[in-house]
Structures are given as C-alpha cells and as structure tokens.
Write a structure and sequence with these properties.
By secondary structure, this protein is mainly alpha-helical. The chain contains 2 helices and 2 strands. The protein has one domain. The protein is globular and about 40 Å long.
C-alpha cells in the first residue's frame, strides 16, 4: 500500500496547501508523495536538481512569500531527509 504523506517528499510543502491537491502520476491519478510543483504526470519538473539546490530554491520561494529568511532556512533544513533524497535506503 502506498503511504500517504503530509508534506511533499521533494520540497517539503504541506500537501494540503497544494492548490490542485498534489502532483500526478503517469496514469493521471494523484500522487500521495509529491506536490504539483515537483511532480507532474509521473515526472519531476526538475529532474536534475539536488537536495542542496532544492533547499536554496525553497528558501528563496519562502522569502518571496514574505517569510523571514531564518524561518525559511529552518523549514528547508528538513528537505534532505525527505524520501526523494533518500532513495538509497530502499530496495
Ligand atoms: Zn514539492
């Protein structure tokens, strides 16, 4: 069974706050792991991005949304722990 996550396992955004309710799988079903900014039709929108790059991207985005930079950095600190960046412990 696929696990349902509270936050996008790529960028850490709460999936509840996704304007369209989550990313989509290849078959068009909703992704339970990723948000619509990261994952569309079974593909990552930025397939080559690293966890470090994702962190700075998210910080910039949050600062743009008027979050204090310190809060943004604290939030982004958890990104490398998300499933997308931890593929090695599986299989
Ligand atoms: Zn995401």
């Amino acid at each position: 069974m696929e696990k349902a996550y509270k936050v996008c396992q790529s960028c850490g955004m709460p999936l509840k706050q996704d304007p369209i309710g989550g990313g989509t799988n290849t078959d068009g079903s909703k992704s339970l792991m990723y948000c619509s900014h990261c994952f569309i039709s079974g593909q990552f929108t930025r397939p080559d991005i690293t966890a470090v790059e994702m962190k700075s991207l998210v910080v910039e985005k949050l600062v743009e949304m008027k979050f204090p930079r310190l809060i943004a950095k604290l939030f982004a600190m958890n990104i490398p722990k998300l499933e997308r960046w931890n593929q090695n412990h599986k299989n």
